[in-house]
Amino acid sequence: MRKFFIFFSVLFFALTSIAQELNCKVVVNADQLVGSNMQIFKTLETSVNEFINQRHWTDKVFKPQERIDCSMVITLVKQTGNNSYSGNIQIQSSRPVFNSIYTTPLFNYKDENLNFTYTEFEPLRFDVNTYQSDLVSTLSYYVYLILALDADSFSMYGGDAYYKICQKITDQVENPNAKKGWQSNTSKINRYQLLNKLTAPANKQYRRTLYSYHINGLDKMESDKKTAKDAILKSIIALKNIYNNSMSTYIFRVFMDAKADEIVQIFNGGPQVDTKNLVEILNKISPTNAGKWAKIK
Questions:
Q1: In this structure, what DSSP letter does residue 129 have?
Q2: If DSSP codes are grouped into helix, strand and coil, which group holds residue 197?
Q3: How many angstroms separate the CA atoms of 104 and 95, rounded?
C-alpha cells in the first residue's frame, strides 16, 4: 500500500508539474526604498515567483519544453503608506520558432502605474470570480495577457478565452476609476486601455498580423527563407488597414517595442525581397524607429 501511495504521489506531481504554463523569472527591485526592511521584498519576490510559476492558469497540459518563457521585473520607487508601495513593472515574453533554437519576443511592456499593498508572508491567491487585491489582479492580468498573445501567435484569434479572463479581472477591480492602472475614464494608456485596444473589433488586423507573422513567417524561416520573408512582409504591410484608426496607434508601439530589432534583422540580409512598401508603412506606423528602418535594404 505504501509503495502504491508513493507511486501515485510521484505520478500526481509529474502530471501537475507539466500542466503549468509559464516559466517566469520574477525580480523585485526595492533599491530606491532606502531604510526599508529589504527582507520583506525578498519574501515578496519568492511569493510572486511561486504564485506565477506553480499555479495552473488554464485547463491545458503544457510539456516542460512548451512552457512560455517570460519575465516580470517589479521596481518599487516609493513607499506610499503603511505596507503600500508604488513603482513599475516590466513584462517580457517570448515564444520558440519552429524547427529552430531561436526564440522570438512577443511582448515587451512597461507599466508605470504599479500600486499595491503587501504584508510580509501574505498569501497571494487568485480566484477568477473574486477580487483579492491590486497586486494579485495586476499579476494575474499580465499572466493572461501573456497567454493570450502567445495563443494568438499560434492560431487565429487563439487568445480569445484569455482576453476574456483579462476583462473579467479588470471588471472586478474595486473602485477602478480611483486607480491610474485601471481607470476607464482616461485617455492615457493603462491596463484597461491596453486591453480595450488589443481586443477592439476595429483592431482585429493587429491580431491577424500577429498570427501570420509567426505561423506563415518565422515558423517557416528554416525551411524556406524567401517565402517566410514574403509572408512577414505582407503581414506587416497589412497593418495599414488599421493605420487610420486612432485606437491603433498604441498597439503599433506595443508591437514594435517587441519586434523592431527583429524586423530589421530579418530584412537586412538573406534572400532579397522588395521592401519599399514595407519601409514606407514602418515609417508611418512607427516613426520613432525611423533610424532602424533606414537599415533595411
A1: T
A2: helix
A3: 5
